[in-house]
Design a protein that fits this description.
There is one protein chain. The protein has one domain: Leucine-rich Repeat Variant (Alpha Horseshoe), CATH 1.25.10. The protein has 15 helices and no strands. InterPro entries: Cell_div_Cdc14. This is Cell division control protein.
Length: 292
């Protein structure tokens, strides 16, 4: 697995669009091998080929609760705990290089693919979310909300922001300190913002106003993600059984850094009218299609 990650990291570190695209496909293929079942057993050579050139034979879905007992997934999860093999770090660095390139269709697609993979990595390896407690990394996402970016990038960025903030209060405080609420509400008020993006922004505001839970994994061993993500990470958390000592300490340390809905309502009200209506919808269970 280290060899496959090394190969993809080499491509992701390139400034050539073709190599970056290949590196992203290799990461996507690796995640497919780790998270999805194969119809029949494969040799080591076949697995390597399917990772290097993914997309030919999409494997059937594996139940999320099965991942905790899967040796390949456990190995991948363990590798992500170290800096050398952490995929999120490489994707963030790749995103930084892409942001420095001129806007064109191919570059926009690479940005979207990078953000999609970041979402997956943060859901599969929640500790990687801690990278977005750093201001420079959080600023990357906020920059992608600017009107200069296409609606597809803006929409994908909003979901990536949710993945970076969910159950991670320290990241939310970084987001607030960097005037993230101003960036979100300015995009919502802008005439240049499309209706589809504005709908995603409203969903984000509902998510932001929800009461906070410290740390991932949380103190009761479950995850809480709004339905806009259309995923079920709670099963993934349960697959790992009882929490380790570090996770419990992380939850305890963050418990004093959380904010209530009322506190966040006051903050958001500085930038946007009608916040009371959003909170009322949230409390009555109307947000996210009635699933909160």
């Amino acid at each position: 697995m280290e060899a496959l990650l090394s190969l993809s990291f080499d491509n992701l570190s390139s400034y050539d669009q073709g190599k970056i695209r290949k590196g992203l496909r290799q990461i996507d293929g690796l995640l497919a091998e780790v998270c999805l079942s194969s119809a029949s057993p494969k040799s080591a050579a076949e697995k390597r080929r399917s990772v290097i050139d993914p997309g030919k034979e999409p494997p059937p879905l594996k139940k999320l609760g099965e991942l905790g007992s899967d040796p390949a997934f456990r190995e991948f999860f363990k590798l992500q705990d170290g800096f050398e093999w952490n995929v999120a770090t490489r994707l963030i660095n790749c995103l930084d290089r892409l942001l420095g390139k001129s806007n064109d269709g191919q570059n926009d697609l690479l940005i979207i693919q990078t953000l999609d993979l970041l979402q997956g990595i943060m859901l599969l390896h929640p500790p990687s979310r801690n990278l977005f407690s750093t201001e420079s990394h959080m600023n990357q996402l906020l920059d992608l909300l600017e009107p200069m970016w296409c609606p597809a990038i803006q929409s994908t960025t909003i979901i990536t922001l949710v993945c970076a903030l969910v159950d991670t209060p320290q990241n939310t405080r970084t987001f607030e300190n960097l005037e993230g609420l101003l960036a979100i509400t300015s995009a919502f008020k802008s005439r240049e913002t499309t209706r589809e993006v504005k709908m995603k922004l409203v969903e984000f505001l509902y998510f932001y106003l929800m009461p906070e839970t410290p740390s991932i994994p949380s103190a009761n061993g479950t995850l809480s993600v709004p339905s806009m993500l259309q995923r079920s990470p709670s099963k993934l958390a349960g697959a790992f059984g009882r929490l380790d000592t570090a996770a419990r300490k992380r939850a305890d340390s963050e418990s004093g850094n959380t904010k209530s809905t009322a506190e966040k309502q006051e903050l958001l009200g500085r930038f946007l009218d009608g916040v009371n209506d959003l909170v009322a919808d949230l409390q009555e269970g109307h947000a996210f299609g009635g699933e909160v």
